[in-house]
Amino acid sequence: MSDAPDGPTGPGPDRAANREGAPSSSYNNIILTGFMGTGKSTVGRLLAQRLDLQHVDTDKMIERRHGPIPRIFEEQGEDGFREIERAIAVELTTDVGFVISTGGRFMLDPANVAALHEGNRVFCLVAELDVIMDRVMNRRSSRPLLAGKDPRARVEELLQQRADGYAQFESVPTDQRPPSSVVSDIISRL
Ligand code: S3P
User: Fold this and answer.
1) Does residue 99 come out as left (phi exceeding 0), alpha (psi in the -120 to 50 range) or beta?
2) How far apart are CA 167 and CA 184, in angstroms?
């Protein structure tokens, strides 16, 4: 069981799906992946509220336990951060009835996918480069991977490197629409 979920305590996905009029499903949790700035945290929180599920955000879990992400990168390197993510993935395998918002590379780590793909429904939130840039530049200081001189070039590079990884999951567009509409889209697919 993960610690201190962000959302209300609630029933599992079955009742939640029924509440929205969708057919009941047999997965344990809904996992949101996608690049930085695609809205995983905001959409996850709203989706959990709408479905009456609990919400957990892997970056927030990590920060509660280990401090700010930029400091983890500084002190333990990116490898240290990825190790922490892997430990979190193992913990999450016992959770049921959660919407799980993950960090941008969390579900691209084969160990985390192996731990979490089975029994869970995964959606990948996607956005165009310009939209991602608008969104990430607001909170750039909290994203150590974008700390260099040319964040746009870095985002393009990472998007290219990760394209195949993200493509393995069902994608949900987030451009030109509010989080509530993304949530409705996801619910309509359950
Ligand atoms: C990362 C994304 C971040 C955070 C960390 C690394 C990545 O999460 O996990 O800075 O490698 O894409 P968000 O996608 O929530 O910004």
Assistant:
1) beta
2) 21
Which atom of ligand 1 is least distant from the CA of 78?
6
Q: What is the pLDDT of residues 26-60, one digit of tens each?
A: 789 999 999 999 999 999 999 999 999 999 999 99
Q: Which atom of ligand 1 is nearest to the CA of 58?
A: 9
Nearest CA to ligand 1 atom 2: 104
CA of 27 to the centre of ligand 1 (A): 25
Parse the chain into domains and list their residue ranges: 13-176
Q: What is the pLDDT of residues 147-184, one digit of tens each?
A: 989 999 999 999 999 999 999 999 999 999 999 999 99
137: how many CB neighbours lie within 10 A of its CB? 14
- Give the pLDDT score at 1: 54
Task: Name the residue type at position 190.
Answer: L
Closest CA to 92 of 31, 173, 178, 174: 31
Is residue 45 in contact with ligand 1, taking CB distance under 6 Å? no
- C-alpha of residue 110 to centroid of ligand 1, in Å: 16
Please name the fold of domain 13-176.
Rossmann fold (3.40.50)
| Closest atom, ligand 1, to C-alpha of 136 | 16
Instruction: Assess contact for 172 and 186: CB atoms under 8 A.
Output: yes
Interval 62-116: pLDDT, tens = 999 999 999 999 999 999 999 999 999 999 999 999 999 999 999 999 999 999 9
